[in-house]
């Protein structure tokens, strides 16, 4: 008889974890992983694989876990997913692979993501395939999840791949955006090391569009280029007082915390003082990350201010639950109007107005409408704007032959990733806008296939 309920993941208790940046979810023990893996029905027509953007052979790797062949399980995952320890931690499995699991119809689906994490974390001998090099150069712009996936896939096809990263560490959003307590940086470094072992040359501190243009890379002999530079330009509220000291974009705040390790000050020379009261504006995973970081940095009260209700929040249910357990205060149906500041131009408060939900908008969510005369004031020391990101124009601002849409995102073929410039492909957030890690990886894997076909056709 198959158990209807999942095996629960061990976690740090909330009162303990809000005082540290260590990983909240502790991972399955071997006994727990084997019991959870035994729940898999080994479907002949696995719907879970259909739900995976990189088509991991899920029943096959779970069967290998059941047989205690953990290295083989990790190897099986890496046939299409070169970042299993990352995906096992941050992918929205509930809306993808697990959302398709047939066990979910009458109970709970198999914990595919947690089993993926278990396989990756328990890999003892990393398999590096023998690769026959073809000495054809390919460039990848960005070393986030999409870029790393495309780079590893192309390297395994024999290409000499160089990934150019603007920051001083590889990983893109995995490094600067996702907090240590959700994704330890040693995990990201381990995954990047694996991709380097496949032959990918990751060059940090290279801002494409400044150091080299796309045309420069072509002149240097790169036969194809994959643009995976993400959507790193923060969006703002565009209200009065947004330039006060203490008002951060989520990008800056999380980069200070994660990449520059302000939580380890003075060991790392990046101080950050959040004060007693912090307001985070937004309802996505980035907003949850900002809230939970602020709490760990010592804020007494952290308010998540969101203009819709909890039902409409785009953040993962698990992240909202963890935030609630950690004492984050949710102010739903609330919208900021203006910030106030003191004589030193430091933020001291925010005036808000209550909202109600009207008819659905283009996103399918009910549109928030202001309630007349419902204004109120919140005293705050820090404000963090987490309402999304837009495209960073630097990489293509001097490339008029690479077409972009009105929002600045690169226009690319949905299937092949081809852009308007021959030999240049694009995928992930720079095409779709901010989305998930695994969707960017799917775009990278797909683009690698078509880049290979393009080069084979034009260099034969």
Structure explained in plain terms:
- With 460 residues, the chain is an alpha/beta fold.
- It contains 17 helices and 16 strands.
- The chain has a 5-stranded parallel sheet with strand order 3-2-1-4-16. A 5-stranded parallel sheet has the order 6-14-7-8-9. Strands 10, 11, 12 and 13 form a 4-stranded antiparallel sheet that branches.
- A hairpin with a 5-residue loop joins β10 and β11.
- The protein is globular, with a radius of gyration of 23 Å.
- The termini are far apart.
- The mean pLDDT is 94.
Task: Tell me briefly what this model is.
The protein is an alpha/beta fold and 460 residues long. The chain contains 17 helices and 16 strands.
Tally of individual helices: 17
First and last CA, distance? 57 Å
Secondary-structure content class = alpha/beta
> Quaternary state, please?
single chain
Strand content: 15-25%
How much is the radius of gyration in Å? Answer: 23 Å
Total strands: 16
The coarse silhouette is globular
Show unreliable segments: none
Largest sheet: 5 strands, parallel
Average predicted local confidence, pLDDT: 94
Question: Helix share of residues?
Answer: 25-40%
Strand order of the largest sheet: 3-2-1-4-16
List the helices and strands and how they pair.
Elements: H1 14-17, H2 30-37, H3 47-50, H4 58-66, H5 70-77, H6 84-90, H7 97-100, H8 112-121, E1 137-141, H9 145-156, E2 160-164, H10 173-176, H11 185-197, E3 201-203, H12 214-219, E4 224-227, E5 233-234, E6 247-249, H13 250-258, E7 277-281, H14 285-296, E8 301-305, H15 317-325, E9 329-331, E10 334-341, E11 347-360, E12 366-370, E13 376-379, E14 382-385, E15 389-390, E16 424-426, H16 429-432, H17 437-458
Parallel strand pairs: 1-2, 1-4, 2-3, 4-16, 6-14, 7-8, 7-14, 8-9
Antiparallel strand pairs: 5-15, 10-11, 11-12, 11-13
Helix pairs in contact: 2-4, 2-8, 4-5, 4-8, 5-8, 6-8, 9-17, 13-14
């Amino acid at each position: 008889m198959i158990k209807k309920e999942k095996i629960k993941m061990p976690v740090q208790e909330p009162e303990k974890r809000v005082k540290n940046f260590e990983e909240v979810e502790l991972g399955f023990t071997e006994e727990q992983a084997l019991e959870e893996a035994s729940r898999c029905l080994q479907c002949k027509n696995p719907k879970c694989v259909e739900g995976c953007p990189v088509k991991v052979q899920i029943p096959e790797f779970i069967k290998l876990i059941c047989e205690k062949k953990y290295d083989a399980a990790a190897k099986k995952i890496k046939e299409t997913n070169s970042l299993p320890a990352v995906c096992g931690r941050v992918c929205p499995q509930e809306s993808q692979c697990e959302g398709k699991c047939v066990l979910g119809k009458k109970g709970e689906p198999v914990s595919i993501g947690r089993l993926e994490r278990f396989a990756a974390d328990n890999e003892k001998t990393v398999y590096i395939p023998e690769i026959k090099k073809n000495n054809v150069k390919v460039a990848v712009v960005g070393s986030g999840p999409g870029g790393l996936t495309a780079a590893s896939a192309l390297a395994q096809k024999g290409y000499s791949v160089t990934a150019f990263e603007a920051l001083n560490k590889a990983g893109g959003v995995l490094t600067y955006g996702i907090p240590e307590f959700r994704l330890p940086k040693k995990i990201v470094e381990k995954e990047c090391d694996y991709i380097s072992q496949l032959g990918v040359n990751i060059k940090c501190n290279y801002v494409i569009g400044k150091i080299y243009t796309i045309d420069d890379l072509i002149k240097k002999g790169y036969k194809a280029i994959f643009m995976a530079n993400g959507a790193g330009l923060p969006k703002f509220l565009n209200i009065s007082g947004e330039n006060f000291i203490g008002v951060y974009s989520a990008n800056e705040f999380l980069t200070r915390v994660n990449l520059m390790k302000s939580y380890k000050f003075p060991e790392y020379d990046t101080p950050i003082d959040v004060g007693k009261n912090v307001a985070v504006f937004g309802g996505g995973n980035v907003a949850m990350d900002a809230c939970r970081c602020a709490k760990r940095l010592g804020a007494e009260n952290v308010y998540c201010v969101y203009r819709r209700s909890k039902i409409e929040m785009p953040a993962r249910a698990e992240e909202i639950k963890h935030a609630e357990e950690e004492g984050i205060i949710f102010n739903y149906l609330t919208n900021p109007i203006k910030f106030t500041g003191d004589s030193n131009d430091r933020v001291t408060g925010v005036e808000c107005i209550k909202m109600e939900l009207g008819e659905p908008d283009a996103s399918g969510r009910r549109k928030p409408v202001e309630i007349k005369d419902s204004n109120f004031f919140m005293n705050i020391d820090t404000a963090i704007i987490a309402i999304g990101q837009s495209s960073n124009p630097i990489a293509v601002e001097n490339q008029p032959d690479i077409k972009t849409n009105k929002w600045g995102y690169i226009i690319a073929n949905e299937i092949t990733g081809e852009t308007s410039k021959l030999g240049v492909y694009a995928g992930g957030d720079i095409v779709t806008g901010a989305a998930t890690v695994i969707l960017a990886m799917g775009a990278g894997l797909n683009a690698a296939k078509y880049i290979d076909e393009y080069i084979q056709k034009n260099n034969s």
